[in-house]
Write a structure and sequence with these properties.
The complex is a heterodimer of chains A (about 230) and B (about 120).
Chain A lengths: L1 E10 L2 E11 L4 E5 L6 H9 L6 E6 L2 E2 L8 E4 L11 H11 L5 H10 L13 H13 L5 E5 L7 H14 L6 E5 L3 H4 L5 E6 L2 E7 H8 L3 H14 L1
Parallel strand pairs in A: 3-8, 3-9, 6-7, 7-8
Antiparallel strand pairs in A: 1-2, 1-4, 4-5, 9-10
Helix pairs in contact in A: 3-4, 4-5
Chain B lengths: L10 H14 L12 H8 L3 H13 L3 E4 L3 E4 L3 H25 L4 H15 L2
Antiparallel strand pairs in B: 1-2
The chains are: A alpha/beta (about 230), B mainly alpha (about 120).
Chain lengths: ~230, ~120
């Protein structure tokens, strides 16, 4: 479904991703982990067609990623982006006008599930409210690939749980693949099929969550801690 | 509330254990319909693929059966459920007895203390 072939991305002289080759299967929920500056966001942006490789190629569904990949990929940014006076409903209509695949009925169902009222102005929502609304906008698109940059970052536990349950309720894994970056691996571990662990722009580890738990006899968070501790000793 | 999971075991296995317990306790009876994969995923806060794996494993063991277009059901084969109940009992017993023996208790002492314990508990 998603394929990176010898992908290197440099910003000026700074190497963000260093010769990465991997592919991701359809119908999975994949977590991209790593410290700040490890290349997580760049990894997502390359798949979203928001930045382009310095070397190598990225494919989604067999097509090389271009600026027009937006038709097959929904990208949920870590930042909030909306017009000041927009209500949730305005945003729904904006999305519907921009994306052929936007399912208005599904969007309303998700907002309802997430306890967001469409009449509210986006700027009047709490941080958690905006976090939930953003998820709803992305999930309502019937696209094969959903990319989420830190969807739970900075949100309180109740909101995180609502978002996780919303994702489980509304994602269609027969047709969709989710790739998300996260710091909160503890929170999303039960949601992930696979984890990809990045460090200094390279893939250090990649594993199926249940296999990893079985082999290492610890959670993904515990396993990550071991990796970091191992490094400190070296 | 999303369920808490033991960090040292695969999640699909822990959900299997929960389902097995419900069946053995007769909370889910022979022929009962299990929640759909999606319902179970939302209830437990777990990836639907993981629940699918749980259901496939249970089906492989003959504990549940999937009927096309209808869903997943607890087997109506009472023999399978009886065997499962026996197997779960054996697992718990062997852990318990091993632990007690490691503390130096004999089988007779273990039996006696079990009786005392259940009287004390009013079981």
């Amino acid at each position: 479904m998603i394929q990176l072939k010898n992908v290197t991305k440099k910003y000026g002289n700074v190497v963000a991703l260093d010769d990465i080759s991997l592919s991701m299967e359809k119908g999975k929920i994949i977590g991209v982990l790593g410290a700040n500056g490890s290349g997580k966001s760049t990894f997502l942006k390359l798949i979203a067609g928001l930045v382009f490789p310095t070397n190598g190629k990225v494919f989604v569904d067999g097509h090389e990623v271009t600026r027009r990949i937006g038709r097959n990929v929904a990208y949920l940014s870590e930042l909030d982006a909306y017009y000041d006076g927009f209500t949730v409903q305005d945003m729904l209509e904006f999305y519907a006008s921009q994306f052929m695949d936007f399912n208005m009925e599904k969007a309303r169902d998700i907002l309802d599930f997430m306890q967001i009222e469409p009449v509210k102005k986006l700027k009047h929502l709490s941080k958690g409210g905006r976090g939930r609304a953003k998820i709803a906008f992305a999930l309502a698109r019937e696209v094969p690939v959903l990319l989420m940059d830190e969807p739970l970052s900075g949100l309180d536990p109740m909101v995180r749980e609502l978002i996780i349950k919303g994702l489980i309720s509304f994602v269609d894994l027969e047709k969709q693949t989710i790739v998300m970056t996260t710091h909160e691996v503890d929170e999303v571990e039960s949601l992930l099929d696979e984890v990809i662990f990045l460090r200094d722009g390279k893939v250090v580890e990649r594993a199926f969550v249940d296999e990893l738990r079985e082999k290492s006899r610890c959670s993904v968070a515990g396993w990550l801690k071991k990796i970091y501790e191992g490094e400190e000793k070296q | 509330m999303t369920e808490e999971f033991d960090a040292t075991k695969p999640i699909y296995m822990q959900i299997m254990e929960k389902v097995n317990k419900k069946i053995v306790r007769n909370e889910w009876k022979a022929g009962d319909k299990l929640p759909s994969v999606r319902e179970m995923a939302v209830q437990t806060g777990v990836n639907p693929n993981t629940i699918q794996r749980t259901y496939s494993e249970l089906e492989r063991m003959g504990i549940v059966e999937t009927r096309r277009g209808q869903g997943t059901f607890v087997t109506e084969n009472e023999e399978v459920i009886k065997r499962l109940r026996e197997q779960l009992k054996q697992e718990i017993m062997s852990d318990f007895v091993r632990n007690m023996k490691e503390l130096g208790f004999t089988i007779d002492e273990i039996v006696a203390s079990l009786k005392d314990f259940s009287q004390g508990e009013g079981v």
